[in-house]
Design goal:
By secondary structure, the chain is an alpha/beta fold. It folds into two domains: 3-165 and 335-455, FAD/NAD(P)-binding domain (3-Layer(bba) Sandwich); 170-328, FAD/NAD(P)-binding domain (3-Layer(bba) Sandwich), CATH 3.50.50. It is 28% helix and 18% strand. It contains eleven helices and 24 strands. It has helices at 3-8, 30-40, 100-113, 171-176, 205-214, 241-248, 255-270, 293-298, 381-396, 405-422, 435-455; strands spanning 22-26, 45-49, 120-121, 126-131, 142-146, 151-154, 156-159, 166-167, 180-183, 197-201, 220-224, 231-232, 235-236, 239-240, 288-289, 303-305, 308-312, 315-318, 323-325, 328-331, 335-336, 368-370, 375-376, 432-433. The strands form eight sheets. The chain has a five-stranded parallel β-sheet, with helices on one face. A five-stranded parallel β-sheet has the order 9-20-10-11-16, with helices on one face. Strands 4-5-6 form a three-stranded antiparallel β-sheet, with no helix packed on it. Helix 2 links the parallel strand 1 and strand 2. The termini are close together. The model is unreliable at 1-19 and 461-465 (pLDDT under 50).
């Protein structure tokens, strides 16, 4: 069946019988471009709304959208061969760990190659997304309003704005420190730190990258690690660490063995975190990746502290009883899920928890989909976007139907319980996903959803599914 013919048979299987022809996509970052590409290729009418003038989202350095957290020396943490989309590879000459320039060029080329660019409305910030239907009684219709007052009605909408745009500010840091305060989101280049006494709070990827970036030229650099974390190297025995983790993501390998092997590899390269002065790893957290910070700590270009006791003007007192004055405080304290255009009554996100069936579908609201609202463990986010988009496309086309709202909510409850048991209970870990579990989950759910759609008399025949 041709893409055009396939689109002609499209039904929103979540709610009823209207063809889902017009699709709105909010965001032209990696997830939004991926969504638009895969929806366009089956003949759907797609419009992408982008707040700024560039594609690429956070990978566009100094993006005029104001949403990018990219800094000048930023490189992606996954090797390029496990980062690119499956149908559009990086050029051979691109370095093993692409820079933000490489990522931006790649995403721009992706959009142009697949004809997505001409479907993007730039300078079109979405200010409101509201339903124009009653779930279960009417066919889904969603209205997007942009900053210029224009209104657009769609059969389905994909929200692709990510979860790294609203920084978490600790009031004590922001209001109590009288030197220069900034969140890592606003850090761009090391020149502003030359000769300064800098304290970086956090132990995630941004924190260690910023600390390593500034420590050579700063007068002093202190890294505050409030909890233990394994710091994964970029390379192990001449092989990219993410190539090894990708190999370990095999269904036949027991989870306990996979975890032990990964920890063993990190230990072989970096040793125990305690030997670097870092807190011990007690709870499972999202691993940090860095090819430089361990050496910087070993060479004492970076000092490690375990916590901030209190702040007195420019003076920071640490939990070990020491204190000193600093010129700059960089808070790498994470992000909150931010959907300013969408009411919390439609999609609640209290405590940074957003309940989406399979990280994609809000159970109570047909025709609304999310791409990229997850944090992938030991893998590339781009691969996850591709899995999600191919999955949700079947629902838009009517070849798959969701289970009941009650069943989806039970599934969400089970997911929340697993995350709470498996990971440290912080706002960072509310949307964690392990590819070895998540991708098979999507496949299994889609098979059941296709059977459900056929029983309801929608979608393609069994031989076409």
């Amino acid at each position: 069946m041709s893409p055009a013919a396939l689109a002609e048979t499209a039904y929103d299987a979540q709610s009823g019988a209207s063809p889902a022809r017009r699709i709105g996509v909010i965001g032209a970052g990696a997830s939004g471009l991926c969504a638009a590409k895969h929806l366009l290729e089956v003949g759907l009418d797609v419009t992408v709304f982008e707040i700024g003038t560039q594609v690429g989202g956070l990978w566009c350095y100094m993006n005029d959208s104001g949403r990018s957290s990219a800094y000048r020396t930023l490189h992606i943490n996954t090797a390029k061969n496990v980062t690119n989309f499956s149908d559009f590879l990086f050029a051979e000459e691109v370095q093993r760990f692409p820079s933000h320039e490489d990522m931006y060029a790649y995403l721009k080329s992706y959009a142009e190659h697949f004809g997505v660019t001409e479907h993007i409305r730039f300078n079109s910030e979405v200010t409101e997304l509201i339903p124009l239907f009653e779930p279960g009684k009417q066919d889904p219709k969603w209205r997007i309003t942009t900053v210029d007052g224009d209104e657009h009605v769609f059969d389905a909408v994909c929200v692709c704005t990510g979860h790294l745009t609203k920084p978490v500010h600790v009031p004590e840091f922001r209001n109590g420190f009288t030197g220069t305060y900034m969140h890592s989101h606003d850090y761009k280049e090391p020149e502003s730190m030359v000769g300064k006494r800098v304290c970086v709070v956090g132990i995630g990827n941004s924190a260690v990258d910023v600390a390593s970036d500034i420590c050579v030229n700063a007068r002093r650099c202190v890294l505050v690690a409030r909890s233990g974390v394994w710091i994964a190297p970029k390379m192990v025995f001449g092989v990219a660490f993410t190539d090894l983790t990708d190999w370990f993501m095999k269904p036949w390998m027991p989870a306990w063995l996979r975890k032990r092997l990964l920890v063993f590899l990190i230990w072989c390269v970096h040793g125990k975190p305690e030997r670097l002065g870092l807190p011990p790893v007690i709870e499972r957290v999202h691993a940090t990746s860095s090819g430089t910070v361990v050496n910087d700590i070993a060479y004492r270009r970076i000092e490690v502290k375990h916590g901030v006791d209190r702040i007195e003007g420019r003076k920071i007192r640490f939990t070990d009883g020491t204190s000193d004055e600093f010129d700059i405080l960089v808070a790498a304290t994470g992000y909150l899920i931010d959907l300013p255009f969408l009411s919390e009554e439609i999609v609640p996100r209290a405590n940074n928890r957003i309940r989406l069936w399979k990280r994609v579908i809000p159970p109570e609201w047909p025709g609304l989909y999310f791409v990229g609202m997850l944090n992938v463990v030991s893998h590339s986010n781009l691969w996850a976007y591709e899995h999600q988009v191919r999955w949700l496309r079947e629902f838009i086309l009517g070849n798959a139907a969701t289970p009941s709202v009650e069943e989806m909510n039970r599934d969400n409850d089970a997911k929340d319980s697993y995350i709470a048991e498996e990971f440290k209970r912080t706002i960072r870990h509310t949307i964690e996903e392990e590819p070895i579990r998540y991708f098979p989950e999507l496949r299994k759910a889609l098979k059941a959803a296709k059977r459900r759609a056929r029983r309801r008399g929608r979608g393609r025949g069994a031989n076409d599914a």
